[in-house]
Every structure is written in structure tokens, then in C-alpha cells.
Amino acid sequence: MHSIWTRANAVFAFTLSVLAAMTFAAFLTTAFNDNIAPVVIKSSNAQVKNVPNYSANRAKNDLASLNFDIQVDVSPVFNWNVKQLFLYLVAEYSTPLNPLNQVVLWDKIILRGDSPVVDVSSANPKYYFWDDGNGLLGNDNVTLVLRWNVIPNAGYLPLVQASGSHTVRFPSNYITGKF
Ligand SMILES: *[C@@H]1O[C@H](CO)[C@@H](O)[C@H](O)[C@H]1NC(C)=O
Ligand SMILES: *[C@@H]1O[C@H](CO)[C@@H](O)[C@H](O)[C@H]1NC(C)=O
């Protein structure tokens, strides 16, 4: 005759094993997804100013402005093991100072249940697009790419880059005044 405590213990142990097995299944069934989706990025109005930065000597650096469009449908990335996505737009370019510069211009969190379609039109960077020197003036190969962190219920955090990119050409003259 089992006492109620023996039964409760058996039920608890069973529940725990089922949960562990499901967590592992959530990880296993999604661990090999590539999590990639295509993106279309466009831009316009690329401009560069040369303005004093925050350093004590107020050295002048390049500060850029542009408008961009982002169109992506991340529904192929969502599955039962995806809690949310953290999307961010990165500008990558090389300069005489650094072989690779990466500047985050914009980001967005998409929760499960949110619309998986991102359609951003003529947006401004959310964050300042500073170069640490004068590497933006006349730079004709600034590449915009969209990346995302997949935040799962169980398992590791994949970091992927959407397929598709866009090249921005900055003019070779500074503008004065406001962007
Ligand atoms: C300011 O500009 C100088 C020269 O371009 C650069 O070396 C320095 O890192 C910049 N400082 C900041 C805080 O951006
Ligand atoms: C532009 O930059 C990308 C990487 O940021 C590089 O792969 C590509 O070869 C460059 N293109 C030119 C024409 O320099």
C-alpha cells in the first residue's frame, strides 16, 4: 500500500523527467536550424559632418547621417523554442585606422506573438554613427547588414546574419549645419 507521500514523490519525479525530456527535445529539434531569413536594406541621404567629439581636446571626427529602409519577415526563424529575437543593423567598413569598424545603428526586439514582419521606411539611426577618425568622408564601401540573436527557451543563443546587405557611399564633402 503506497502512502500519499510515496505517490506524490513518484508524480513529482515523473513530472520532472518529462520536463527535462521536453526541454532537451526543444533544444534538439531546433539546434540545427540556420535561423536565417532574407532582408532587403536600402538607404538614401548619406551625409557626413566633421564635428568635435567628446574627448577633452575636442578632436574632430566624422559623424554620419543617413535614412534607411529595412524589410524582413522573421517568421521562418520563429519555432516552439524561440522566445524572442534581438535584431540589430550594423554598418561595417574599413578605414586606414582600423581594418574593420562595426557600428550599431538601430535595433529592435521581436517577442513571440509580435508581428514577425519588419518594414522600416526612411528611418534615422537610433544611435550616433561616429567614426573614431575621418574614415567616413568619401568612404564608398560602408556595408549595412542585419543580424539577430535568437533567444531560445532552452539551448544556446544563435547569432545569425540575414542574407542580403546594402552598400552605402558617403560623399567626399562635409556638410555644415544640421543633418
Ligand atoms: C576623438 O577623436 C580623436 C582623434 O580622431 C580620437 O583619437 C579619439 O579616440 C576620439 N575620442 C572620442 C571620445 O571619441
Ligand atoms: C567592401 O567591403 C566588404 C566588407 O565590408 C568587402 O567584402 C568587399 O570586398 C568590399 N568591396 C570593395 C569593392 O572594396
Automatic annotation (TrEMBL):
Q: Name one GO cellular component term.
A: signal peptidase complex
What InterPro entries does the annotation carry?
Answer: SPC3 (IPR007653)
The listed locations are:
Endoplasmic reticulum membrane
Transmembrane helix keyword on record = yes
Set out the biological process GO terms recorded for this chain's protein.
protein targeting to ER; signal peptide processing
Give yes or no: UniProt keyword Membrane. Answer: yes
Where mainly located? endoplasmic reticulum
The membrane topology term of the UniProt record is: Single-pass type II membrane protein
Q: Per UniProt, which keywords does this protein have?
A: Endoplasmic reticulum, Membrane, Signal-anchor, Transmembrane, Transmembrane helix
Write one Pfam family the protein is assigned to: SPC22
> What does this gene product do?
Essential component of the signal peptidase complex (SPC) which catalyzes the cleavage of N-terminal signal sequences from nascent proteins as they are translocated into the lumen of the endoplasmic reticulum. Essential for the SPC catalytic activity, possibly by stabilizing and positioning the active center of the complex close to the lumenal surface.
Q: Which family does it belong to?
A: Belongs to the SPCS3 family.
Q: What is the protein name for this chain?
A: Signal peptidase complex subunit 3
Write down the species. Answer: Plectus sambesii
